[in-house]
Amino acid sequence: MTAPTTTSSVPTGEVNSITGSRAALQAVASSATTYLDDVVQVKALAGRMRAEAEAMKAAAEQMRAGMAAAEVDAATLAEVSSMLERAAALEAAAERLEAAASDVASNADGLHAAADTALAGLNARHSGVEEAHAAAPEGGATKAYYTGGR
Fold it and tell me: What pTM does this model have?
């Protein structure tokens, strides 16, 4: 499995021009896509971990039953029971990891869609320098916002 690629390429959010706003919105969408790519790997790993924990739990249950039938001492049975408890906890943790990965995927997808919507809205409402300044709601942003300070 390749290591996840999520990096710290998220923009600061500080923008003072329409070009900077577009770049920031595109960077957010791109970062969200990276999360989606990485989550696929995390979900696959969590699934394998859950399946292995389930198998270890089944093996511990079988060991405990066999040892109890063979009348193994109470201390050993308690230790095997502890293994069973830890395997069950590991399985539950892997299930939570799978659920969390799904939640991350859903939110990353939503963030990507929101950034795309914001970018489309920005472009639709503010694409022409003069038109945007004159026709934007509430009189538009300052002209420097559209011209990059020029």
Answer: 0.68
Domain ranges within the chain, ordered by starting residue: 33-147
Q: Which two tokens stand for residue 121?
A: 């809205």
Query: Is residue 34 within 8 Å of residue 7, measured between CB atoms?
Result: yes
Write the CB contacts of 33 (distance below 8 Å, at least 6 apart in sequence): 108, 112
How far is it between the farthest Cα atoms of the chain?
89
First to last CA, the chain: 49
Angle formed by the axes of helices 18-69 and 74-126, to 10°? Answer: 160
Output the CA angle 100-106-112, nearest 5 degrees. 130
Alpha helix (H) ranges present in the chain? 18-69, 74-126, 129-135, 143-147
Q: What is the DSSP letter of 2?
A: P
Instruction: Name every residue whose Cβ is closer than 8 Å to that of residue 38 and which is 6 or more positions away in sequence.
Output: 4, 5, 6
102-149 pLDDT per residue, tens: 999 999 999 999 999 999 998 888 776 656 566 667 766 676 766 666
